[in-house]
Amino acid sequence: MPPISVDNVIETNSKINRYRFRLESLPGLVQRGEIQRKPFLQHILLGRDLERFPQAEIFWRAEREGEIGIGRNTYANKWMPLGDKSIPDYLGLSLELLKRINLEAAREDDRYWMVDHKSEDLPVLKDPNGFFTKIFGEPTDRKSQKFFDNLLEVTKLLKVYSTIYISKISNLITQIDINVEIRGKKRVLTFFFESLEANLPDFPENIRLFTNEKIISGRLLIGIPKLGGWDWPSHGPWAQRSINLIKEKDEYKRYREIYSTEWKWFKEDYTEEMARAKNPSQPATEGLHHPIVLGAGCEDNDLPFPNYYNEWFGNDPRFAGTPNFQKNYYRSFHHYGGHETGLEYKLYFEAVALSGGVSPPPRIVNDRYYSARDWGYGGNRIDENLNRMTFVEAIRQYNRYSEEGKRNAFLIIGHVIHLLQDVGEPDHARLVAHPASGYNEKEAYEKWGVCHVLATETFAAACAACSWILGVGCLFCGGISFGAVEAACYASIDENEMGFEKLIGEKWNLVQIKDKIAEMSPLNALNYDTFFQDVADFAINKADEKGLKSALGCSALKYFPLIPDCDPDINSNDGNQCLPYITLTNEVAPRIIGYSAGLIQYFYEIVNHPPFVQRVVIIQGPLGLVPDDFTKLPAPANEVYYDSQWIDQVPGDLKIRNKDTPVNKPMNPDLQAYMFIQFGPNLPPLKSKAVKQETLNVRLYTENNGINIEIPMKSAQSPAIGTYYWGTFQLKRTQKPYKLQLEIQAEDASAHLIQRHQGGHQLDSNPGTVARANVDDPPLYNFISYEPGADKNHLLDVGQSRNLNTTIIAWQILE
User: Rg of the Cα trace of the chain?
Assistant: First the structure.
């Protein structure tokens, strides 16, 4: 085969109008696309790795006013105008490079001529300080100076050479390798070329640009996992500590249902040690930890909720159709603001699509998202088709009068508590996104591909800076700059530097505020809104007092201006730097925990079902018996004379109750009577209602003959139904049968919202209509179908005495 001919190679490749290329330097840089020289058109796919390639798509074409470009993140499909420059004509630059190389030394094998080249006469090598200053500007702070010093050191140490592969059969340039060696480590940029006969994909016409703000192509390669927030080691244990605070300060057991260990789905407390031992992306175990803790941990889920959510809510299509039950949805965009105003949209938020595969939620009003306060409240404040894990929905769930409804209600309240915890973080309260706050510097740079994207952008800038040196300038300056910038960027990373939330997650724990919490009680507020407002305002004030600006513990990376506050900045080994952030947390965390406990109590006071007389049983038998259990006396000779109870018509979604009286026969006035009363509703975990003993008044009376029998009642416990009450009485003996009206008065021993006109603590005199907190009547949520007052739903028959003389004597003695 004849030797290589430069003229033939140049002529052959110059005739190519359309070609396909591939540029790879893995991990970090992948470009694949098609270039048409005349008329000018480019279609390029971009990525940082092959696993998820392509991550971005761009087009460039010629217009009268010059080149115009558009690009999109392939996960978001939102086209944006580009503000940088088109991809260089790599094949054309390669031809210019060939003109400057002596091809007599070309190597060859069966398929290719291989032309090696080593260029040291480049600005980036001769004067790296001046070259990179033109690209990046002068260092202005400690971090940019550290990066710049590393960049100059790396550049002095690197070696660069290239190899061009030319097909012996076609004379086409098929591949170029640019090898950059730094401290014995090699980084290779490889270009692949092939002629293209087919047309390029058409430039998208008549599309609606998502924004008029021009971006650089590198922005399309950035992926942001989240916008910030307390991590799972905070949310779960803090929610648990709020529950425990309620228990510790509940002297009269008025809130016992909240912290009861008798829930079948609550076996043990959730601790910080458990949280840190788990994968932070995983919630606590279903059936092991309190639903409030589960909900607090899962509110940050951008992926679908754990499987048990579908099991718990699966029969309700209102839930199955909302985001996070079946698909990804970024709930965290609605986690800002303790008042009515939420987070303002920023263009860089679109970067979350590269991490999660879906775009940010649509903005709601005036380019903003729902505030955390309103997202947590629900009702008519938000689109409930987006979120059912709300305060209003928790009331609806509790109103179901079922164990499942209570469980679901507390799970949902866990989501609301998460939001209250969030607005206690000053960045959330100030409406400032803080994507780096939960990471150290190494984690943040790797998550977003900072070094890869910075090196890619520098490749283009260096190519342009060396364009005056034909061919060799662009490819070599670009390749050298890519390798040098990437290496310098990695060398500048300090994993001891971290954001505020990362610092707290690793260097702080609840032990530091145990004395403060021990001295406090659950903190109350006027209504739902004021819980959020008070927590948010307190957090802002405490951060202001210490001069801590948002985003806390984060700064802007000068050479990576695409994401504000993306560089974690607190030196975790420097006690003086850490102190104000630790002190801030020591002040806001007790407030968060106290108000969370107060909000849980407030919810319970709203929804706690009014008590009613669920069942009355009267048994007659010998004197002096003490029951073994509800309706069970030790003597075998006792007999049931009256048994009446209210039966739920539709258990689990209660609308009405029916009274069922299977036994109602005239009582024997010659026998001792034993009365058993069960107060409802009978629901786990505490089962039957307990009432205040001092308010329990039970009497039998007649209107016409003056009989009035007061029945002292005692409380007792049954494994099956929980608390019940019993007492004994002796009937009046008469010659004729008569009827007695039973009247029962009592007040609930558990907590209710006493600000209401009808607080809910009194007996519901009409159990047939089911009392519910009215979700459409804030802030008091007055009960509907609730008629407080004495229960007079039982009229008892008394038969004739079998021994009247004995009866009269006995009655006189009793009197």
Answer: 38
pLDDT at 453 (0 to 100): 85
Give alpha helix (H) positions in 52-189.
Answer: 90-99, 123-126, 128-136, 142-157
561 or 127: which leads in pLDDT: 127
- Amino acid letter, 467: S
Predicted pLDDT of residue 470: 47
Angle of helix 128-136 versus helix 142-157 axis, rounded to 10: 140
For residues 548 and 426, the answer to whether their CB atoms sit within 8 Å is yes
HEC string of 362-373? Answer: CCCECCECCEHH
Q: What pLDDT does 804 receive? A: 60
Q: Which residues, in sequence order, are CB contacts of 775 under 8 Å at separation 6+?
A: 379, 392, 395, 396, 399, 781
Half-sphere exposure for 778 (CA within 13 Å, toward CB): 15
Angle between helices 403-423 and 291-298 (to 10 degrees): 50
The DSSP call for residue 248 is: H
Beta-sheet strands, E only, within 134-223: 159-167, 173-182, 185-195
Q: Is the pLDDT of residue 442 over 60?
A: yes
CB atoms closer than 10 angstroms to residue 184:
6
Nearest alpha carbon to residue 299 among 434, 414, 436, 410: 414
What's at 578, amino acid-wise? Answer: C
Query: Hey, which residues does 788 pair with through a beta bridge?
Result: 764
Q: Give the whole-angstrom CA distance, residue 597 versus residue 593.
A: 6
What is the Cα–Cα distance from 399 to 394, expressed in whole angstroms? 9
Residue in the structure block whose two tokens are 């696309």: 33
C-alpha 758, offset from chain centre: 36
d(CA 554, CA 531): 28
Mean per-residue pLDDT, 256-275: 86
**Maximum mean pLDDT: which of 81-95, 116-130, 328-342:** 328-342
pLDDT above 70: percentage of residues in the chain: 94
From residue 625, alpha-carbon distances to 246, 665, 722 in Å are 39, 22, 20
Of 104-108, 139-143, 164-168, 803-807, give the range with the top mean pLDDT.
164-168
As given in the structure block, the two tokens for residue 654 are 């209660």
On whether the CB atoms of residues 786 and 771 are closer than 8 A, the answer is yes
With beta carbons less than 8 A apart as the criterion, state whether 304 and 327 touch.
yes
Measured between alpha carbons, how far is 428 from 334 in angstroms, rounded to an integer? Answer: 10
At residue 812, the pLDDT reads 41
pLDDT at 24 over 60: yes
Helix (H) or strand (E) holding 567: strand 567-568
Identify whether the C-beta of residue 294 lies closer than 8 Å to the C-beta of residue 417: no
Q: Which residues contact 332 (CB under 8 A, 6 or more apart)?
A: 226, 227, 228, 229, 300, 302
The model's confidence at residue 815, banded by pLDDT at 50, 70 and 90, is very low
Predicted pLDDT at 814:
43
Cβ(486)–Cβ(455) below 8 Å: yes
* Integer Cα distance of 652 and 684 in angstroms: 12
**pTM of the model as a whole:** 0.89
Q: CA-CA distance, 363 to 767, in Å (whole number)?
A: 46
Q: Rounded CA gap, 131 and 148, in Å? A: 12
Mean pLDDT of 623-636: 91
Question: CA dist 397 to 140, 297, 305, 403, Å?
Answer: 57, 20, 18, 10
Contact of 159 with 135, CB cutoff 8 Å: no
Per-residue model confidence (pLDDT) at position 652: 58
Within 10 Å of residue 253's Cβ, how many Cβ atoms?
15
Q: What percent of the chain has pLDDT over 90?
A: 57
Segment 342-362 shows an average pLDDT of 81
Helix (H, G, I), strand (E, B) or coil at 126: helix
Phi, psi (5° rounding) for residue 221?
A: -100, 5
Pick the more confident residue, 763 or 225: 763
| Gap between the Cα atoms of 735 and 751, Å rounded | 47
Which residue is listed with tokens 């009363």? 677
